[in-house]
## 1
Amino acid sequence: MTDKLFPWTKAQIEAIAAEYPTPFYLYDERGLREQARQLNAAFSWNPSFKEYFAVKATPNPAILRVLHEEGCGTDCSSLAELVLSEKVGIGGEEIMFTSNNTPAEEFQKARALGAIINLDDLAHLDFLERVAGLPEMLSFRYNPGPLRTGNAIIGDPREAKFGLTRPQLFEAYRRARDKGVARFGLHTMVVSNELSHAALLETARMMFELAVELSTTLDIRIELINIGGGIGIAYRPEQPAVDLQALGEAIRSVYAATISAHGLDPIRLCMECGRLITGPHGFLITRVRHLKDTYKRYIGLDATMADLMRPALYGAYHHLTVLGKEAQPADQIYDVTGSLCENNDKFAIDRPLPDVAVGDVVAIHDAGAHGHSMGFNYNGKLRAAELLWRLDGSVQLIRRRETLDDYFRTLRFPGAEW
Ligand SMILES: *Cc1c(COP(=O)(O)O)cnc(C)c1O
C-alpha cells in the first residue's frame, strides 16, 4: 500500500493559484532530493554508482540542477536534452547519450560535450566515426530479443526498435576495439514502469553475465554497466513501491557472484531512471470548471490530456485528490475529463470521488515524469506553467504558461495580426 497523500494544504495551493492560475505543474524539491538520495544509498556498495536522470521525463533545467546537486548526471536522447544539460553545467561523462536513429549533429554535440555515447546500432559505429570521430570510450545498447519478455509499456524486445542483437553486440565491441576504442560501457533498457523486483534483478543478472562473456571472449575491459531506467512507481494506492534498499542488496549479491567472481571488479554500475525520481514528486494542479450529468456524471477540469496524456495513451491510472475533501467518503462515481474534442480526453473513468463542486481544486498525482514533457498543443491548448516548491517553502516559477502569442508565433500569414 502507498499512501497517496498530497503534501500541501488547500489554502497553500489556493495562495499559489491566486498568482499562477490553474492548471499548473507543481514539483516538490524535498521529495526529488530524497528520492535521488534513496537510490544512491541503495547502490552505495558500488562506489562509483551513478544515476543518469532521464531528461525526457522532466526536461526542466531547474529540476536537473536539483538532481545534479544530488549527484545525478543526465541521460539524453536528443539535441535539446544535450543543450539543457549544458546550460545546467553538466558535461563530460556526467552525460550519457542514449539515442536512436541519431542525426549527425546530435552525435557532434554529444562529442563536443564529452558525453558517454551509447550506440543503438552496429552501423552507427562507422557513422559516428565519419561525422564526429570516435571517442576514447563507447557503450552499446543490448536488445536481448527472445531472451527476455519485456513488459506491457515497452513491449516484447523482439518488437522493439532499440539496441543490437547478441551477435551484433559481440561484433560491435570487436570492431570498436580494433578501431582503437579503449574504454567500454554496456547498456540495456528492457523494462518500463516495472514494479517487479524479480524482473529488475533479472536485467542486472543478464547484464553482468554478458559483461563477463564480452570481457573474456574479446579481451576488453567493460568499465561501466548501465542497466537502464524503468523502475516503476506505485501509481495506484494498493500498489507497493519498489523497495530500493532490498533491490540494491539483491543486485549486490548477483554482482558478487558474477563480476567479482570473475575478477572484473570494480565496474561502475549505472542507471538512468526518470519516472522513479520525479514521477511521485510532481502534481498537475487543476480546477473543476463544469459538472455535467448525462448518461454518466462528468467532472470537467481546466486541464486536458494535452497537459497529461498518460491516461489517454496507456489507460494509465493517476490518483486524484480533491483538495479539502480528503476526509470525505469517496461515494460518488465520475468520469473526469478535459475540454479536447476527443472522447479519450479523460483523466479517469468511473472513479469514486467525494462529492465535487465547481471551483474545487483537484491534484493529479504522480505527474512529475512523462507529464508536462509529453504535452502538446492540440485544439490550441496552451502548455501549463511549472512551479517548484523549494526546500524553504517558497514557490519558484520554473516555466511560465504558454500564451496565444507563443502558439501563433510560428505561423506565416501575411497581413494578419494575431
Ligand atoms: C525513457 C528512457 C529512460 C527512462 O525511463 P523511466 O521509465 O522514466 O525510468 C531511460 N533510458 C532510456 C534509454 C529511455 O528511453
## 2
Amino acid sequence: MSKENWLRALPGIDSLLRSESMQHLRSGYSERALTDALRNILQDLRQQLLSDELALDLENFLLTLDIEKKDCSQSEAWADFLRPRIKSELSLNEGFSFRPVINATGVILHTNLGRAPLGDLAARHVYESLISYSNLEYDLAAGERGERYQALEPLLARLTGQEAALVVNNNAAAVLLILNELAEGKEVIVSRSELVEIGGAFRVPDVMLKANCRLREVGTTNKTHDYDYERAINPETALILKVHQSNFRITGFYSELEAKELAQIAERHELPFVYDLGSGLLHPEAKRLLPEEPSVRDALNSKADLICFSGDKLLGGPQAGIIVGKKKYIERLKKNPYTRAFRIDKMVVSALEAVLRAYLDPERLKLELPIFAFLEKSLAELESRSDIFIDRLEAQGVEASLVSSEGEIGGGSAPGQAFPSCAIALDPAQIGRSAAEVEAELRQQDPPIVACIRKDCLLFDLRCVREDEEEELCRSILKIFAKNS
Ligand SMILES: *Cc1c(COP(=O)(O)O)cnc(C)c1O
C-alpha cells in the first residue's frame, strides 16, 4: 500500500467528532478542545506515515482497514483506535492521584476499587448538575428554601412503598444516627450472631458505644431464639436491631429469628424494630440473581419500622446510607444533629436520583447500572470475548489461555456465593519475569490495571472491564508481554 493511500485513509476531524465513541468526551470538553486535540493527533499520524516509521500498533491497525470503503464504520474504528491518544492529548486523568482503574479481578463490588461504578446516564447527570448551580435546597415551585432530600424521598417512598425516607453519607452513618436518635442512653437488643465487623472499623458493639446506647446481646453465636429476645426486654429497652451478617455465613447447627418474627416481638412490646440490611438489593429479580442475599423487598415484607442499607453495594449507586420506614421515626431522625453532620453532597444527590430512576423501569437496570450488566453477563459471552482477546494477544506472539475461575460479588455482599466465570491466563515466565513483578507493573499503567495472580500466572477476568477499556487493557498487556516491541 502506498503512502498516498494511507494518508487518504486518515479520518477527518468532523467524522471523528461525530463518531459514537467520542460522544462521552463531547459532554465533557468544548468543541474547540476536542478539535485541537484531534488536529494534533492527526498531524502526528500524518508525519508518521510520511516518515515511514510507523509505531507497531498503528501499522497493525492500518492492516485492518479497508481503504476503499471510507464510511462511518471506518471513522468508528479510527476513533476507537485513537481513544487512548485522545485521552492523553486532553490530559485526561494525567497527574491525578485518584483516577480510574481497570478492574480485571472479576470482583463486581470491589470496596478498594470504589464499589459500584456509575452508568453513563447517571455520570452525565452528575456532571451537568455540577457545572451549574442547582436546586439542591431550593423549591422551584414556591421560590423558597427547599429540602436537600426533595428529589430522593418521593422516589424512595415510591420504590419501597414506605412512608418516608432519608439519605445520609453511608450506611455506617445511618446505623449510628438511628441508634443515637431512637436509643440514646437506653438498651438495644441484638443477637450474638449479628455482632459483626464490616471492613474499615464498623463493628456493631463499637457503633453502639458511639451512639451512646447500651448493647444488650442475646442468644449465642449459632442459635438465638424468640425467648432470648422476650427475656431481654425490660423498661430500659429502646429498640430491637437486626444486622445482616453480610460478609460471612454460619452454617451447620444454626438458627436465628427471621426479621418478620422480630418485628412481631417488637410490636407486641411497642418497640421499634430496625433492620440493618447492609446491601440494598432492590432489583426486582433479586431472587434469581442472588438467591441467598436478603433483598430490600424481603426486609420490607418483614414490616420493620426502619430499614437501612448502602447506596454503593447491590443498589449499584453512589456511596450513601439509605433509610426508609415509618414517618414518625424518620421525622425524628431528620432533627438529629448527626443528620446534618452526615448529610450527602450534591454529587450524591444527583447520582442517586439517576440511579433510583433507573429502578422505575426494570428494563433499564442492566443498561444503566453497570453492576447488573456485569453480574448478568453469561459465561458463554465472557468466554467468547476472552477468546477474541486471546487471539489478539497471540497475533502478537503473546501466549495466553482461557481458564475457568470464580466470580464474586464482593463489597461484603453474598459471601460464599461464587459464580462460574473465566479468565485470561498469562504466564510471566514467557518473558522471564515473576507474576508479582508483572502484577506491580500493571498497576503502573495508564490507566492502572488490577489483576489477580493464581499459580504464578496473571489472571484477567473481563467481566467488569468495559468494552472501551478492553482496548487499553490489550495495549498495556502487549506493552509488557510482546517480545518484539
Ligand atoms: C456494608 C455494611 C455496613 C456499612 O455500610 P457502608 O455503606 O459501607 O458504610 C453496615 N452494616 C451492614 C450490615 C453492612 O453490610
